[in-house]
Design a protein that fits this description.
Layout lengths: L4 E6 L6 H7 L1 E3 L6 H9 L6 E6 L6 E8 L4 E2 L23 E2 L1 E13 H6 L17 E4 L1 H15 L1
The structure holds a DNA duplex.
Length: 157
DNA sequence: GCCAACGTTGGC
DNA sequence: GCCAACGTTGGC
């Protein structure tokens, strides 16, 4: 089956593309939105490429590329009473939340900012660009993926 | 720091 | 099952 493409948001003050580059691989814990969870659980596959998006950043935008590195599995932070992501309704025998692992692929020389994304043709249907859309895990079409990558490559020479 | 948009919670 | 209140996200 062909790869699906994704976009995942992170606040760089919490976990940035540079952190991922340093770590090589990380567990994407703390997703507490059902739509996002369902996509991780039902649709993400190891090897799928991921845009790593910096939210609440200056500027906000796509900072690089990661890759899904595992199938979905229960989110351990939901079981951890000391974690900010603890959720009492998630039980080990019936986990409410899942994670995937992701690994580092590439850091863009320059963030492709939200403002630039808004100006690119062909990205009009990206959930990211729709007002009020806050999903932290989003699907990206093959055409959208290509468009952003071509733009980034052209710009970085 | 503000606030619009959205998701979740809980009283009824 | 409705919906008001509340909490969160995230751009600005």
């Amino acid at each position: 089956m062909a790869a699906s493409y994704w976009l995942m948001k992170s606040e760089p003050s919490v976990y940035s593309i540079d952190d991922l580059k340093r770590d090589g691989r990380t567990i994407w814990e703390g997703v507490r939105n059902y739509q996002a969870r369902n996509m991780m659980r039902d649709a993400m596959k190891p090897g799928d490429p991921v845009f790593f998006y910096h939210s609440n950043a200056e500027p906000p935008g796509i900072a690089g590329i990661a890759e899904v590195a595992s199938a979905a599995y229960p989110d351990p932070s939901a079981f951890d009473r000391k974690s900010p992501y603890y959720d009492a309704k998630s039980k080990r025998e019936s986990p409410a939340w899942v994670v995937v692992d992701i690994k580092f692929r590439k850091r863009f020389k320059q963030v492709v900012s939200l403002e630039e994304l808004r100006q690119l043709r062909g990205l009009e249907n990206m959930p990211l660009l729709r007002k009020g859309q806050r999903l932290s895990v989003q699907p990206v079409s093959a055409a959208e993926w290509k468009r952003v990558c071509e733009y980034e490559q052209k710009r970085s020479g």
